[in-house]
Records
---
Amino acid sequence: MTALSLLDCLRVLAAFCFAFLLVPALGGEGRVSDPDDVSSAGCGPAVRVLQRFIHASLAIEVGCLLLGHFRLCLPGMLLSACVLFLVRGPLRAGLSGQGQDEFWPFVFGALEDRRAAAAQIRARAARLYMFFNQRRAGVIAAIVLILLAASLRPVLRHFHFAYPDRYVAAVNLAALTQGQPWKADGALALLAPLVSLTGLDAASILRFSGPIFTIAFVLIVALCAYRTWESFVALLVISAASIISLSVAPAISQEWNPAMEAAIYWAAAAVLWPECRLDACLAALLAVMIDPVEWRWAAVLAATLFAASVTARASRGWLKHAARLVNGMACIAAIALFTCGRAGSAGLVQYESAARVCESIVRHFPRNQWIVVSPFQELAFTYGHAWHVELSEFVSEFTVDQMTDPRFRLPYQCPDVFFFVERRPVTAIAAVGIPKPVWRYSPAESADWSSFLYTDPLGRDSLEYRAGQMLAAYGRHHKDLSLFYADDDILVFHLVRS
Amino acid sequence: LRPPDRPVWAPPLELEDLVVRLEADGVTSSVARSEYGFADVWKLAEAHVSVAMAQAPANAPQEHRAAPWKDFFKGMAFATPMLLCCVMALVFKVGLWGGPLSGNEAVAVAIAAIAAFVATGGFIQVIGRQGHFYKHGQQWALCARSCWSAVLLAAATLLMIVGFAFAANAYFQWLPLRLFALCAAFTLCIAAYLLVSGILYVLDGELMIAFGTLLGTAVSAALFLIVKLPLLVSQIIGLALAVATFSFFAQLRFIQLGSRAPIKVPLPPPGRLLFMLWPYFVYGTLYYSFLFADRIVAWTAHTQLSALPLQFRGEYETALDVCLFAFVLQVGWIHAGLVRFYRIVSDEQRRISIRNRKNLRRTLGRFYARQTGVLGTLCIASTSIVLWGINSLPALKAILLFRVAVLALAGIPFAAAALWNIALLFALSRPILAVVATAWGLAANVSTGYLLSRLFTYDYAVIGFDVGALTMAVISAWSCRRILSKFDYHFFAAAA
């Protein structure tokens, strides 16, 4: 399972690099590395990559929000947009007749003069090797790998989410990418291409987005420090601080959330401000679109910008050093805020085994040929793959007497039905952010009956007990129900319909 | 001065004309100097122009002209396998592909058929282009070599495509492995069938195609109905037999025509071939993509509830299949029109002089307008026949979407008109313009169909076909008009 998770993570990483870095780099105008550029303290290519990252992010954000409004944020649309953007450059060159003089001689050479072609390929490979063989490129690659290892560790072990709103976000994202009604959310719109490009479910995208955004954030903050200090050591110090901070911080700090996404664009705004104010404003706009209520990052950004402008203009040595110090402190504060600021109160929303069993069912059973009967959380893992029935609906629709009748058949049309029942009902939900419902008279008289069943410890206990009782009764009088999975926390029953 | 190997010859119009002819025959200034003792080619021409202009012209003997209805039926010959499959399916309920299949198997076969057409479309164009080129020059060894090389290249490409599709399928989990294997096997078989039948078309072997198709269908029907083999297995065996029969006939025909050792004949360098043939290849791929794009768009719309991300919709497919009869009738005329075009050009060439080029343009313009009128009449007639057929057969009407049939019938005349224009563009060696028109048509088809099918119901994808066909017809017609307005120049450039 870990190997498969690692593979899925690589898919998400590849899709992220493709949509946010490769497509804007190949489809954009001009080259990323300009040998004549001596500005930006030698980090011109990195800044240009960041600019294109911001442009791509803004295009994706606005595009997906608009498409989502018309329920058209579908894989076909997003893939076509990527392809169109990629072929934009060659199309322009073709229409204007540029590049023809170089293209055909190259083809003739490659097809008819094998030796020359091999020499040409060898020369290009040597240039590429020289680029990656630089000490700094190697150090940055090592930092990325260490960061990846540090931030991947928790998500490879945990399938479930620590916060209830992630389950809602996963369902919302899945609805967006399947052309279903969704609640507009800037943070999720940015992830829509990853769902389409990877073919993975929305829950996996949320799960693996955390580490990827963490790496992106650390690299941008390190770039910010490098620009201000004009020293590679500053980059190394910030990276090392990030790695230490990530190792010390609780695992849930790397779980995806809108503030994490917004933090990247705040940091990008700080880096881009001295270079291009328009792009910096666009990055800040993106951050606001993603998480409008986050204010702490604005304070960090202000400090960073102040330090950067003082560093650029200060003529006295001590003032410059002070400004650099402020910048360094702002970078450290940003990392601390990023890793520890979000590790608030989290609790058990879903058992890990329940999430893993869902993942396994999704992998092994054919699409739309099965039903999961469970609490809401499992829907985040099954949305778009098959059907889901709320456990509360199952409990309220049928009776134990019906279950004991050997002639009774559950009215589900799919060949396989899975029932998720908690042996020890999850009771920590009320402590992790969802306000406890206030009942006017009694739970039974309240209109919000399902909230009572899922979020109130008493309701959850009664729901799970009732479900277990009904399935046990059904199993005693029918042969088509078997135990699919069992541990100390959950039971998963499997109904095979002939 | 008249070359003995040329049956058609006209005296030069002026000094410049003679210089051009001499240089075209390889008599450059250095040759004129070294072999004929003149200072340059101009001096040589000046010395001989009066003699050359006094020569009598040599006209070509009156060629045998086939009746127009024969050309018309020859134009429809490409539909022979399809018509035979339909007849066999009606009689035995078994075709070379398709038939009474389960939902998922139907999806696999549908994808395989479309993938085979799209993947081989470019290669079939290349086979046709190169094959006819060598055939007209009676270079049978080269013809055989180029045809079989294209088939081998296509086979290698198909294997790569299947490998890539396997990786993509493993990545996106579109089809279960068994279904994918079935799809891949059918794709390879149908592709081989199409490729080798492409060689037989070059060799005018329509009868051999009919025989091979009938044999394959009969064998698959016998295996399914008598031996009780599974239908898909029977069809794969039938397809393999048809391919083997086609290959045998094709090779036999090449040997009869004098090609005994095609392997030893060198083809032009691959870079040059690629440079010459890529527009034809791209056109073939785009054209088949255009024909099937609306099906793919319709079958992938609103599939949230289906077991696979692609759902075969029989009523949509049946409506388009029935409309294909109108298309075949209309396309048959294109071949006849093209034969007529060459005849008119040939006649006009005999009459033309450098001074009355306007007459040539006017004649060609009138010919184009007249042929468009004939096509319009044929479209109305064929559409009426198909509509009448659907309305008079309630059993047929019950299994298709009437709205799709009507909308497809509205788009097919535009597709036929576009093909007519594209045939003219190919005749005048302007394949890039054909590629541009087809690419825009495909883009319009996919984008319109995708949006409409996702916003409304899946059958609106057929409007994409209509819009795409209209786009292709308008762009290709505009290109044609532009070329016909300067026909003399473009014809000379194409001949050069």
---
Amino acid sequence: LRGIHPRPATRANVLEALREFVDDCKRNPDDVAFVYIAGHGVQLTGHDAIVLLSDVGSPRHLTVLEGTINVTTCHSAMSHADTASTQFWFVDACRDDRSDIVAKFASLKGGITVDLPVRDGRDRPDPARRAGDRKGPMMVSPIFLATSSQEAAWANERERSVFCQALLESLRQGAVVAPDGSCPDWHVSTYSLAERLKLRVQEIARAYGKKQHVETNGCWGNAVVHRMPPPLVRLKVNLLPSTAAPFTSAALLLNAKTPVRRIPKGWPLVTEIDPGMYLLTVTAKHPFNSVNDILDVKPPALDRDVEVG
Amino acid sequence: MAIRHGTLEIFMPFDSPVLSRILPIEIRDQRHAIVATLRTERVIRLPEGLYSISAVLDNGERVTKPVQVRHRESACVHFQLENPVVERQCTSLVLPSYDGTHPFVSMLFTDQPADASILSDLVLPPPGASADRAGPRRLWVAAASPGLSISQSDDEHMIHARLEGDSRACWLLVASSAGASYRALPLSSDPACAECTLVVRSDSSERLDVELALAPERRVGRALHGLIETGKVGLAVDLARHAIKLIEGEHADPISAAYSGLLLQRLGLLEDHARPVENLARDFPWIQDGRILHAAVLSRSRRPAQVRRGHQLLLEATRSSPIFADAFSLALALLRRWPDEAGEAERQARLEALTSAIAHFDFTSTFATMEWPSAEIAATTAMTALHDPGSAPHHEVLRWLARLIVTRYVSHGAPPDQVLEQFAADNRAVVDQLGLSGVAALLQLLRAEHDVDLGALTAWPLAPDPYLLGAPDLGGHVEAIRKDGTAAGDALVDRFDSAGQLSPAEEARWRSDYREAFEESYREGFEEHLSN
């Protein structure tokens, strides 16, 4: 984030930032909150996790967990009537598998948390609440955890973490879906993000030779995370065999009717086009065969082989 | 100009009424706008053109097929499940010498401190067995809950577990050279749901990888699992809202209902399903998951009596293993953050009693699973072999520990001269069982196989006496000492035998003397080891 100069994540600084954030969430008319927590994490159970702050273990602290933040209880405490009705929580931290450590922490208390709100009868999710309504119950507040229980959250040194890479890719293209009943624009929804993030984190981690699985909890519902104009989709069509290239030509027809103009000549056919259903017609001279293929072009990209021989 | 139409016919691979209602078939047009959302297979009339048909199958997989609808023609789309490919590496299974009357029902969930006695029945493969690539790698079913019958399928990588008789909590303990694993089984007495299958995916020496699946007849539960695994949260929630009610009538499936309840709880959506949760807890008390869920619902009640009831239910439910790992997580979270301060001491005591279970619990698993690596089992069961001066240390244990030190300490940049100290502090119990000669052998192994030099052993804190370390039953351990055959040990055993019954003061003195003698014998063993 440009222009933001974060202070060290000490207990004192985090407490102050958390206080400001809680106040902002009460006042901000946009009614949407994003929380991204990154750091070294220790999981206590499949539901619970603490993230270590930079001064964890300080001799000034009275308890072992004083230099930690409890993500789950902070989230629970932010689920009430007087805060942002739509929240997105991302936790990019290990959920450590060192059972000896977990066992040590299992019955300890003391991490930073926020008090649970006083019950006022309005803290149950109410689908009728619209964005912008203040003083109504919270609607949607999913948590996306970068790892599954007992896993590490991976990153190459001085690069974005696996989770962060996957999240940015998903928001820009990977999780983008067409307009539907919930949103008239191309958009990323909580559901499409959950599905894409899970897949993409697994893929990127596998490329590094690691295992990492996104998990979700929190308070779920369908909400729009990000809206955008119809994205351009990168299409690549490979001709098989490649020796057929001089004897073939291609055309793309939207809905099998409307020709797409200015598609590049030659193979492989690489272009960027609007998402949609296209008929690809490849006309070939003897001894190769002409073929038609239906292309379902949608973000983030489509790679297709077409065989003419 | 009149619009030209054709028809589209869609066939799905399942006929479950619940799944058909929940898993949608989406038809999108040339611009990806939704034209229709179908809930069951059917024939639909559409303007001619290109369409994308997308369906979610009952394994959670989303399949999209393009289709061209032509004027006055009928196009068909068939969705089919692919056969799952199971990676199999294990070469054979050994079925148990088990009589179905094993007494260990609740394992580590009792109020006793770490009840490791179940592990003492395990017989590990001989040292080096799994390293022998030519020989069979084997899996044992070491113990099982009463009422369970176990059979091996024609496929040697599968075990079928079948519940005979009334519904009850079921579990298996399986073991291989990699360690042992406790598995809660999703079984109920309904004929269609009384059987489940474990598939051995791999029993490499690093990890015992046994996959447990719901019975094929539990279509809803299996579909829910698939949807969760593939991140389809919205559909999973829709399905769970139906499935949580599956506790009555002909198609009752309380296990899938509990699974659904846990998902709804995790996603903050359980509040609207308090009644089915209460019924689940009341009618199926052997499913601890339902009782834990009910406790979660009661914890949010505004009536103090209900909160107290929930508290009691939680304490009772955590004395036995749940079926799903998520239920254990939820129980721990409730024990830590119960809204009422009353009963804090009881909850804290419960948490402490569960510490050992937490340390071995696999929270990544769908079903409640506890795992013990071979080193820890060796620590529990093979003490004599480990501590018999003159016998070679347990190679498998040492290899596992060497890998652990490299992956968790050395590769994380710990200074070499502090690695051993750190490792010992974190793994006290295991290191204590190794003793000095074992640690010396471990250092040699690190040098020889990992090219890691952690320096000399000069600062190594001497291991406390493993036999007497917190052992409540002195008599049993005297028998182990007797087998040691050391002169110092023999003298102490004689003293024990002649005293008959030791007073507490005599016992304390005896332990102290033995510790001294033990340490002396280990110093000798260590020096001998280094000189060799």
